[in-house]
């Protein structure tokens, strides 16, 4: 018999459309980003929980937003500014609670990260040829789906290695008339788009 | 005590943060900054992608590699990033080779199973596209022919300039001889005549020096002071900073660049002016030695303003040792505007 662990976070209710709209508006802080600020903040929270070795990083990020939304509904406004700082404050509480839960309830069917040896982690990267080929095919298709200038930038930015890569990136930034930092952010966004596209493509039967 | 500087963490510290090597106090500060500070959040993304790419390409080594495998890969989400990075590394390098071998065609092969050359030695190789190797050789041969043509053109211009300079030098020498004859005939210490003789000799020496250092740009024109514009460029650094913008008067014919060096390690230097829009070299200076003033060494070159358009250029400084070994020292990026 296989026991499924009780996870308190799975009980929370999702946001209503109006609550979600209010959350987006609060995150935008007066500048309509068409949801981009929410997506970016969600990404940051997931990364934060993941770096803190929480297996349910996605769920913890959603829980953070749920709590902020409940505060907005109850109080109408949040005094802590900017919104990102309040997100961090709530996320920290969510993290501490999750750590406390983890100490009390050892997960039954999830591998304990501390027990995962380096050898096993390395083995998990050696996936089958079929899966690897599928990902490469998906990536080819996703690259083709990009706009030509985005595709060209992605290829130029991520090719080569070492000093050659650095020099190439410097040339790209100079050609575009932007800083290296801005170029890196631009490349990151394209990479995230490709990652999401590949994930969707690989999930298809 | 925090090890993070007041000005913010550098990339190395962000890498240590990602590998779980920072003290708890510093890690918590970066936890907060990774959510609250847009600049640090952005840099962290870039640094993390570069770290993952380094692992995927096999260039991560030593303690960083060990820590990456023992700490960073402990997360399923991060393992997924590494798998994607491996695919991205292969695909973009293949696409770059494909684009170079077949210009004008799309940069991504039609299928991942299509055989394409792959330069990274540590990964499984695919077969070369039939005809790609010969296309490469043709491309290299074409480049060599172009380079030879450019060298021949430059040589012809230099010869033309040298001939003109020699002609003018001969004229000045004749004049100097005539003045000497006049001095001998008069046999008196005429101060004005002696000065004239000295001035002519100095002009002759300057002309000989200019013939060596800078060819005459307009054949047939007299030696005269042409409209010039001078600028000092500081040594390039790894830090992100604004690109030097030069507002050049429209009637400028020459732009004198002083390229400051962090250290003078070569016997001679050559400056290669590159058009960043076309990604090609459009002018090369003669090989010159650096000049020092106190602790500061600089390379001085004069670029014909007629070669330039309102756009970005880079001045690539190539050092040449006494043994003839060349090495790129640095690249100075400028934006030219005409007013």
SSE sequence of chain B, one letter per element: HHHHHHHEEEEEEEEE
- What count of domains describes the coordinates of chain A? 2
CATH architecture of the largest domain in chain B: Sandwich
Envelope shape of chain A: globular
* Level-1 CATH class name of the largest domain in chain B: Mainly Beta
Number of domains of chain B: 3
- Helical content of chain A stands at over 70%
Largest sheet of chain A: none
Instruction: Label the structural class of chain B.
Output: alpha+beta
| Sheet of most strands of chain B | 5 strands, mixed
**How big is the Rg of chain B?**
29 Å
Strand order of the largest sheet of chain B: 2-9-8-4-5
Keywords:
heterodimer; A: 205 residues; mainly alpha; 2 domains; 9 helices; disordered N terminus; B: 339 residues; alpha+beta; Immunoglobulin-like; 3 domains; five-stranded mixed beta sheet; four-stranded mixed beta sheet; 7 helices; 9 strands; elongated
